[in-house]
Amino acid sequence: MTTAxxxxxxxxxxxxxxxxxxxxxxxxxxxGQWMFAYYVGSFYGGSAVQGDLEVWNNxxxxxxxxxxxxxxxxxxxxxxxAVIILVGGPLQLVPHIRARVPAFHRxxxxxxxxxxxxxxxxxLFMVWTRGSAGGPMGDISISINAVLIMIFAVVALxxxxxxxxxxxxxxxxxxxxxxxxxxxxxxGLMLWLTIHNGPVGFDMDxxxxxxxxxxxxxxxxxxxxxxxxxxxxQDRAGATGRxxxxxxxxxxxxxxxxxxxxxxxxxWLPYL
Length: 272
Fold this sequence. Notes:
- 81% of the residues lie in helices and 0% in strands.
- The chain has 9 helices and no strands.
């Protein structure tokens, strides 16, 4: 009994530290995702309004192909829904919104899950009809990502309907991470280029190489692995484990922030 009482203040501090570290990570991620959403909306939406769809090919391989109406529509729908999901997704994870505006949370959640499902289907169509910059391995990694998004969306919705809120929230977190795979790929790539001051482990012209193959799968598997460690830390770890997890999240947040800055300056702003 004495030991439990003595450990209580330390555990309270550990819980607060872990919660603060997770909130910091989320805040930085939201800022980065909304920057990406602004870029997608401004560049692709702006060029569509101006009728200059061929400029999409400067970023997306075969983004616009003359005469392929269905494929072009799929790309346009994919990009439009990407903006919706990048803006609306993070709002689902804000506790104050869930608590104070539950009707919005439910409506936005259904829109988010439906959008995630549709964007995965359009992504699969794009990859298997037009290919990706990463070649066959890139096609496979993107396809797995799309399938995981659809599975996680269905599972998250199932637990929401069943009113198992704790399990639903965990699957919503997993869904958020796999939906963010494209974004993680970009900030991971720019972080790598910043660290090495140039392309290492892949060819910039062909956009092929072992590092890009690794990143193609790591863009969603690595965040999922970190999330599982975080959830298990919440459930089972003592104060020491929680402090270690919090420190890990802070390091990851700083690393992610560098990638966001590099992507914003080197990948997004130049096209706006």
